[in-house]
Amino acid sequence: MHVVVVAHTRFALARPFAGGLESVTWHLVRALVARGHRVSVFAAAGSEPIDGVDYLEPETIELSEAARADVSMPDEGNLQRHHAYLALMLDLAARTDVDVVHVHALHYLPTAMAPTLRVPTVLTLHTPPTPWLESALQVAGRSAARGVGRMPHVTAVSAHTARAWRHAVEAEVVRNGVDTDEWTPGPGGDRLVWTGRITPEKAPHTAVEIARAAGMPLVLAGPLSDARYARERLMPMLGDGVEYAGHLHDTELVDLVGGSAAALVTPDWDEPYGLVAAEALACGTPVLGLSRGGLREIVRDEVGALVVPDDRLVGRAAAALPRVLEIPRERCRRYAEDHLGMAAMVDGYLEVYERALRVAEIA
């Protein structure tokens, strides 16, 4: 089939990835092509090419000086995104060579305009509820109820995320997957590791506190997504066994994570999924995390430990670490292969696509 994957336009789908959303979207596209499907991708300029993929770059708006002089001129970045998605959806509404449109974007327009398309749309929820996307789902739902087009088929990356959205929409769970051919087993080591976006909600500072309480060295890696937080909160904590390795390419991350004794996953929010935990387990590295959001679906007792995020979490996490360090690495790797792999995710989405096409035929 011909699948159009709609990513968001803020970050390119390119390694090193800006975050889990970009990583999952890029790997899904590559896996669909490997399965023999035709794939077109709408993504930010500079996305990493995949053989056989047609890239639909966002259209850029060209405003007149008169429009720019308007006192109500909106933020230009938001206006550019609005223009790009509007142009895309109008183009897709006219196309006759597409079977399914799969939306991974956080923007509201692809969802709100899904009923205008001739083909079914699949929407994947990657985040907690947002007001703009809730609004778009309501608009699409009303259009479908009036017999104008079809409501998107909605999926969520975890059961936790599906529950978070239940007041607005019923979402089928298709969990994120990790490429276990890319994230390969490592030998372990004597240090801890933390990976992810450097932001307050990811809370790498909590990982530093846990490592210090446990008396173990720690390496942090990830993009500085919040420069102020990094400068004022995290960087002053470096030294004395804690170092920041930078924003690493996937191959470097595999070496770092696979060469670590355990991975710390310390979010200060309810993770919609928790891809870094799945990546660590694929490397054979056990996980010590916080019992929040989708992490509860990934980290089981046999491959790690989860600590309740309260005012005693640092001490209890440090106390739990010795048991985590004793978990056999082979068990973590086998668990990732059996439960967290990319193949299961792709199978799940292909089933959703085929079901959506059958429903469209009946309609």
From TrEMBL:
The keyword Glycosyltransferase applies. The keyword Nucleus does not apply. InterPro entries: Glyco_trans_1, Glyco_trans_4-like_N, Glycosyltransferase_grp1. Keywords: Glycosyltransferase, Transferase. Residues 19-182 form the Glycosyltransferase subfamily 4-like N-terminal domain. One of its GO terms (molecular function) is glycosyltransferase activity. Pfam families: Glyco_transf_4 (PF13439), Glycos_transf_1 (PF00534). Residues 193-337 form the Glycosyl transferase family domain. Transmembrane segments: none annotated. This is D-inositol 3-phosphate glycosyltransferase. It comes from Ornithinimicrobium kibberense.
